[in-house]
């Protein structure tokens, strides 16, 4: 497994052998296929982080995240969501850059 | 490191985002034509209403075409939500002018994806969008021709009735 990116709370890995990704959420290591990664990215993009600062729109500042066809359920607070956004953005960036310059070794 | 993303998906993620945005746009166009059909029904322009029903289903077909393409590429097509639909028009001419403007916006958006795809060397997308570029020319021409009718036949009373009768679904 290759570490792609680490944020404050989480780490993003790629496994060449399994042709998939892993996110270490601290208490749980979650395996993601490429499709599941796209789905997570999409889910994160729909989160309105502004609502977290408005007690009428998001009273407790939590976000419920279901991953991998509802196999996993996470309850994340504002900081954790922001951190996860950073993780995904950067991990995909690193993967993208790796692709562009044709890195084949790990 | 293996390029898993490339193994799983034939297009770039950034291009997929643009295509998902286009899916949304086609869905909006479809719903918007339905709103125009509603206005035409209520204002006694039955041929124009038929025309817009037909346009609405065509736009849905466009949406499905892109949706299927994203799926076929191994991507994540997103079922769109449609917001901010306008149902208010003051004249039949305004309806068709709004429709033309909408088509022009769609054309611009497709050109935009096309140039992004070219930059990313997503030639598959370039090839796919070629059909839409030809289609957009047809759509724009249709509305331009209809708007010409108002110039020729006028905008008052019975003229509008005659214009409506001349409007047929393609
Ligand atoms: Fe269209």
UniProtKB/TrEMBL annotation, chain A:
Superkingdom of origin organism: Bacteria
Protein name: Uncharacterized protein
UniProtKB/TrEMBL annotation, chain B:
Gene Ontology terms: cellular component: cytoplasm
EC numbers, comma separated: 1.16.3.2
UniProt-annotated location(s): Cytoplasm
Entry protein name: Ferritin
Protein's organism: Arenibacter aquaticus
InterPro entries attached to this UniProt entry: Ferritin (IPR001519), Ferritin-like (IPR012347), Ferritin-like_diiron (IPR009040), Ferritin-like_SF (IPR009078), Ferritin_DPS_dom (IPR008331), Ferritin_prok (IPR041719)
Domain of life: Bacteria
Occurrences of domain Ferritin-like diiron (ranges): 9-154
Gene Ontology BP terms: intracellular iron ion homeostasis; iron ion transport
Group of enzyme by EC: oxidoreductase
Main subcellular location: cytoplasm
Family according to the record: Belongs to the ferritin family. Prokaryotic subfamily.
PROSITE patterns in the record: FERRITIN_LIKE
Pfam families attached to this UniProt entry: Ferritin (PF00210)
Reactions listed under catalytic activity: 4 Fe(2+) + O2 + 6 H2O = 4 iron(III) oxide-hydroxide + 12 H(+)
Gene Ontology MF: a single term: oxidoreductase activity
